[in-house]
Amino acid sequence: MPGTPPVRAPDRWRARGAGLARRLQSWSEILAATHLSFEVRPTHRTPDDFYGAVTRRTVGDVMLVDCAASPFLGHRGRIVMEGEAAASEENVLGFQFVCKGVEKVREGGRELALQAGDVILWDGLQPTDVEIVEAFHKRTLLFPRDRVLAVCPRLAELSALPALDRSAPARLLVRYMNALALEQSRLDPAASGAAANAALELLRAAVEPCVPTSRSAVRAATRAEIRRYVRTHLQDPLLGPASIARAYAMSVRALHALFEDAETSVAGLVRSERLARCLEDLQQPNGGSVTDIAFRWGFCDAAHFSRVFKRAFGATPSEVRQATLAATPLEPLQ
Q1: For the chain, which domains are there?
Q2: Can you tell me the distance from the alpha carbon of 219 to that of 47, in angstroms, rounded to the nearest whole number?
Q3: φ, ψ for residue 120, nearest 5 deg
Q4: Which of 124, 104, 146 is nearest to 34 (CA)?
Q5: How far apart are the C-alpha atoms of 127 and 137, rounded to whole Å?
Q6: Cα torsion at 122, 150, 332, 265 (round to 10°)?
Q7: Bridge partner list, 113
Q8: Burial zone of 75 (CB within 10 Å; 0-12 exposed, 13-18 middle, 19+ buried)
Q9: pLDDT 10s per residue in the chain (334 long)?
């Protein structure tokens, strides 16, 4: 049907090979490609016809991964971690839901016995041992660490990740994961990015009540809250340091001081968020005219908008719009 996004099939892997040793080696390679690097060994429960399969779906910059396997042992020590060729890809935090089976986990200083219905937040930078006791199936959201810390900066100060077993937002995130598994294949890029943001907000809601407070953490958390406020008020042409300061009952001077050690100023934050939204709409065939888009996201002067847009992306809004309508969208400068 016209306007219907193309269906994107998930990526799939399955352990293969003649004999148990070869299958376990295949499984180790699959885990490294889809989760984290592990040394994989058999236990007395591991069957000769070992089964292991992974299905991975991309949702914005988040990965939704289904993993099912027979019993095995997995070891992720410092030698494995230091020998990884692409360690940056494993700089992730995983939100995991156990669908079936039993898994024992030792991560850092905590030991857990997970079974069907349990949820856990795990750290890709921690040495970890796992034992699959009963054939299991788990569903995991893999979040880039910097994305999680951007919305929940206090998490960086913890020596161990919080337990989420009694968290209502965590349970809601599980239901959201299940919905994503059904709908992800039909999401266009903009919807996929929005879905990833929604998952991140649910994770924040689950984690933040469990995190202690310090002065630096409070400052970082306040900045993260202001960033969310900015994103939801971009259409207000009066959005700026004065209106933001009023919304948070602080002086403009205090607001600027809050952002003095951040990557950008408050005004710069507003401008960059507006430009990002404008770029998204310019790359949508039904986004409207350049002027409509500029005014929609709070720019009041079309000429000023064109100048700051070109400075940010290396092309004018009209060039991006024309390329979109010609079905050859331009790539913004990095």
Answers
A1: 11-210 (2.60.120.10), 215-325 (1.10.10.60)
A2: 53
A3: -150, 145
A4: 124
A5: 22
A6: -170
A7: 104
A8: middle
A9: 445 555 678 999 999 998 999 999 999 999 999 988 899 999 999 999 999 999 999 999 999 999 999 999 999 887 666 665 445 556 889 999 999 999 998 887 678 888 899 998 888 888 889 999 999 999 999 999 888 888 887 777 666 677 787 788 899 999 999 999 999 988 888 889 899 999 999 998 888 877 766 666 677 778 888 888 888 888 888 899 999 998 888 888 888 888 887 888 899 899 999 999 899 888 888 888 889 888 989 888 888 899 999 998 998 989 888 888 876 545 554 4
Its pTM stands at: 0.67
End-to-end CA distance of the chain: 35
- Tokens 């429960």 belong to residue: 45
Q: How far apart are CA 188 and CA 190, in angstroms?
A: 6
Determine the residue type at 151: V
As given in the structure block, the two tokens for residue 132 are 């699959």
Token pair for 139: 């569903």
